[in-house]
Amino acid sequence: MATTVVKSALQAIRERGLRLFLRDLKEDGFTQTKIHNIGATVGGVDKFGNKYYEKLGDTQSGRHRWVEYAKKD
């Protein structure tokens, strides 16, 4: 799993450049604990603030989509 995260991060840096990559990480709050979302695209956000992600490519079947639930605050 760690190698997939590193591969995804490197691919995202190649595609967007380091500056945009780091800016996106900071804006989305990925610099804290959301490392698993690197390289994924946001499929949508519902009215409750839940974020729906999708990551195609070298992921396992059934694990290419996931939800990050909004905080209860």
UniProtKB/TrEMBL annotation:
Entry similarity comment: Belongs to the complex I NDUFA12 subunit family.
Pfam family, one: NDUFA12
Task of the protein: Accessory subunit of the mitochondrial membrane respiratory chain NADH dehydrogenase (Complex I), that is believed not to be involved in catalysis. Complex I functions in the transfer of electrons from NADH to the respiratory chain. The immediate electron acceptor for the enzyme is believed to be ubiquinone.
GO cellular component, as recorded: mitochondrial inner membrane; respiratory chain complex I
Name of the protein: NADH dehydrogenase [ubiquinone] 1 alpha subcomplex subunit 12
Membrane-spanning ranges: none
Subcellular localization: Mitochondrion inner membrane
GO biological process: response to oxidative stress
Topological relation to the membrane, as annotated: Peripheral membrane protein
Record's keyword terms, sorted: Electron transport, Membrane, Mitochondrion, Mitochondrion inner membrane, Respiratory chain, Transport
Keyword Cell division: no
Highest taxon of the lineage: Eukaryota
Keyword rRNA processing in annotation: no
